[in-house]
Amino acid sequence: MVEAMELRDIISGSVPTKIKSDATVADALVAMMERKTDYVLVDRSGPNDAYGIVTRWDIIEKAIAKGEDITITAAVSVARKPLVVTNNMDLDLRWVAKKMADEGVSRLAVFDKENFLGFVSDLDVLRAASAKKPSKAEKGAKA
Kindly report the CA angle at 54 between 118 and 41, in degrees rounded to 5? Predict the structure, then answer.
């Protein structure tokens, strides 16, 4: 039997990439390029606002393909909001996958209270699922 992998095991390698709510699409693109990621968190403009996400595809589809000037277009105008988030670091891998499936998303933003820890993606889940950890019984048999 394989040991359960938890969200905390998957998110540990994530680099939290966040831009301000008043950032431009160009700012989002620069942040992605600097951090070598395909998506960034868009911060809330206030306590009653929702977090958002901007992906490379959002920039292509909602800005560049429409002829927008990315140096003046607000990132929030191409962001998807509200963002699907989780803050339960004890979630088992299957529940992370189920939340993604139920919400129809390929990424979840992970928070510890108000502290953004990063994103967990479908690729992270697939990598974790393929990385078999030996069970306690298997570990004992090798000793």
Answer: 30
